[in-house]
Specification:
The protein is α/β, with parallel strands linked by helices. The protein has 4 domains: 101 residues, no CATH class; 179 residues, 3-Layer(aba) Sandwich (Rossmann fold); 71 residues, Orthogonal Bundle (Helicase, Ruva Protein, domain 3), CATH 1.10.8.60; 217 residues, Methane Monooxygenase Hydroxylase, Chain G, domain 1 (Up-down Bundle). The chain is built from 23 helices and 15 strands. It has a 6-stranded mixed sheet with strand order 5-7-8-9-6-10, with helices on both faces. α8 links the parallel β7 and β8. α16 packs across α21 and α17 runs antiparallel to α19.
């Protein structure tokens, strides 16, 4: 409701109250004759009074005949009876007086309470409207759309600012060109897609792509989050959907962008035990609006989500979201392009190499790389440098991966020595096994929450497939720290708990997901539902108790074999382990150059030797075979 209309309502209310008050006052003045109390007693004795109504302070009545002024009704103010008697003895005219408020006071006494009540009511309604998300804070606007409208280049982002997702960019460039040149693209009968759904992990640039569309399209761009449609009252979200599409049709051609679509478009009936009528009605209204799209109206709906597996199937069918575009983690060329965009904002040194940084950051998203560049600039600023160097980037990568250095965390000499041998165990096993990722740095400086030391490996290239042997080598590297502790100190510590957990996860995946156990066969005993980009998909385990025992035994066999391999490698290189661990205790950190100098001195275990050179980690082979061959109930 606009301010002009609100003012008009206020004028009407005030005028109505003034008219009612004045009308009552004039009516009383026109029909009543105010007479003294003595006149009333005289008229009473002379029999001119027809009827009387008596109150505490007034006498109101009617004459039998109209008086000289033509009035048939009268009113008189009462006075105490004893005083009236005394005054009558002296033939004095007397009457009571009641102080009457002024006309302004009367109006104020009537109007002010009403105005106060009405003002409080409006204030409460405005507050309730804000709580329920009414646009502009008005209660009557609770069903209005809260979409932000961007026109042309207001977002300040174009496709030149987007890199690493070339396929997704090509899809959206086509949509933008379709809106700009509908005749050219429609000459063969094609129509613009109704909806484009951007899916991918968090931080890959889905929202940035939408902002780039806003900057390139040159048409009105409506941006809103899916959670803003869902409110407490049933029907509010559906009303907002209707309002949003009505506004878009008025400004067509236009683009509507709904971020976090999963908050609105979750599958209906997914939770039989509960209900959410508001969300389901909102989704139904969205489906209806998508069906009502005119292909010639020039309205395109963009959606973004990282949980496509929970979306309602009716929302994903052709004719609603015609295209689903994957915005995935960038590969190495994509990371180089992203780094080049972000590094334009900083003052970099000549030694900074975007290709080298990209090689050190596999798996990082666009948001991660932007944060990396910013962290490197902050580190350079902290040391009062004029430019950002490659060392700043290396330190920033370590800070993001391993956490913040904690040089104030003091370890006793025994713990510090254990950590040094543990980390060098990882490094030497990794350097001894062919095909493993390069060891970039080894340090015994505590980082993060619980890391007392760390060994950083960097892949030389992006990998999408791994063989069984490569997975087993990865397990052997993880268990190299535990093997070094056992070899040097002949005892076990809790420092390898995270290594064991990760090694067990890899071994279990080899058996249950990748079909790498020859006895259990090429069967997937564990599956995940849907296409999940958050890394927390629900795992379905489908196997009997007997198969579960076989899986546990197979995992144990893989872990035992690789632990023995790691121990065998360290036994062959025990002198080097002792020497490098002492150097690590003195320097606290061995960088890539220090480690490369050791590479030529490492003795590699023969490839055919997968036996167990020591009995310390070897489980009883006879017991192990008995376990695998025993019948399970």
């Amino acid at each position: 409701m606009d301010k002009k209309r609100q003012f008009n309502i206020w004028y009407f209310v005030v005028a109505f109250l003034l008219f009612s008050t004045l009308q009552g006052w004039l009516e009383q003045r026109r029909t009543f004759s105010d007479i003294p109390y003595s006149q009333f007693e005289q008229d009473l004795e002379e029999g001119r009074i027809a009827r009387v109504q008596v109150s505490d302070d007034r006498v109101i009545g009617e004459f039998k005949e109209a008086d000289k002024n033509g009035k048939t009704r009268f009113s008189a103010n009462r006075i105490p009876q004893d005083l009236a008697t005394k005054l009558s003895k002296h033939n004095i005219e007397y009457g009571g007086v009641i102080e009457k408020p002024s006309v302004f006071g009367t109006l104020l006494s009537w109007v002010l309470p009403v105005l106060i009540f009405f003002g409080l009511w409006m204030l409460l309604m405005r507050f309730a409207g804000k709580k329920m998300g009414g646009m502009g804070g008005g209660f009557m606007n609770v069903g209005k759309s809260k979409a932000k409208v961007y026109v042309e280049n207001d977002t300040g982002v174009t496709f030149e600012d987007v890199a690493g997702v070339d396929e997704a960019k090509d899809e959206l460039i086509e949509v933008v060109n379709f809106l700009k040149q509908p005749e050219q693209y429609g000459r063969l009968g094609a129509t613009v897609p109704k909806g484009v759904l951007l899916v991918g992990p968090p931080g890959t640039g889905k929202t940035l792509m939408a902002k780039a569309v806003a900057g390139e399209a040159g048409v009105p761009f409506f941006s809103i989050s899916g959670s803003e449609f869902v409110e407490m009252f049933v029907g509010v979200g559906a009303a907002r959907v209707r309002d949003l599409f009505e506004e878009a049709r008025k400004k067509a051609p236009a683009i509507i962008f709904i971020d976090e679509l999963d908050a609105l478009g979750g599958a209906r009936g997914a939770n039989p035990g509960g209900s959410n009528s508001e969300r389901e009605q909102t989704l139904n209204q969205l489906l209806v609006e998508l069906d009502g799209f005119d292909s010639k109206s020039g309205i395109v709906l963009l959606g973004a989500t990282n949980r496509p597996e929970i979306l309602d199937p009716a929302l994903l069918r052709a004719g609603r979201f015609d295209r689903q575009v994957l915005v995935d983690r960038p590969d190495k060329p994509g990371r180089i392009a992203i780094l080049n965009i972000h590094m334009k904002k900083i003052t970099e040194n000549s030694d900074v190499n975007a290709e080298q940084i990209a090689a050190l950051t596999p798996g990082m998203t666009g948001a991660d790389l932007a944060n990396l560049v910013n962290e490197a600039a902050l580190l350079a600023t902290r040391r009062n440098a004029d430019t950002v160097t490659m060392d700043d980037f290396n330190n920033a990568i370590e800070r993001i991966i391993a956490g913040l250095e904690k040089r104030n965390r003091l370890l006793n000499p025994k713990e510090r020595e254990t950590v040094a041998y543990h980390e060098m165990g990882h490094a030497l096993v990794a350097m001894a096994l062919p095909g493993t990722d390069q060891v970039h740095k080894v340090s015994i400086i505590p980082r993060g929450i619980g890391a007392l030391g760390y060994t950083i490996q960097r892949p030389t290239e992006d990998r999408f497939l791994m063989s069984r042997q490569e997975l087993k080598d990865k397990i052997a590297v993880l268990l190299g720290g535990r093997a070094a502790e056992l070899l040097v100190f002949d005892h076990l510590s809790t420092g390898a708990s995270d290594d064991i957990k990760r090694a067990t996860q890899i071994a279990r995946s080899m058996v249950t997901r990748y079909g790498m156990d020859p006895e259990l066969g090429y069967v997937a005993y564990e599956t995940t539902e849907g296409q999940n980009h958050l890394g927390n998909a629900q795992v379905n385990r489908v196997y009997s108790e007997g198969v579960a025992r076989e899986i546990d035994n197979s995992v144990l066999e893989i872990i035992t074999d690789d632990a023995n391999r790691a121990l065998a490698i360290l036994e062959l290189n025990k002198d080097l382990l002792l020497k490098t661990s002492e150097a690590l205790l003195q320097k606290e950190t061995l960088d890539f150059d220090d480690l490369q100098a050791l590479a030529g001195n490492i003795k590699q275990q023969p490839a055919t030797d997968t036996g167990s050179p020591t009995e310390r980690l070897k489980y009883s082979q006879s017991n192990f075979e008995d376990t695998r061959n025993s019948d399970s109930v």
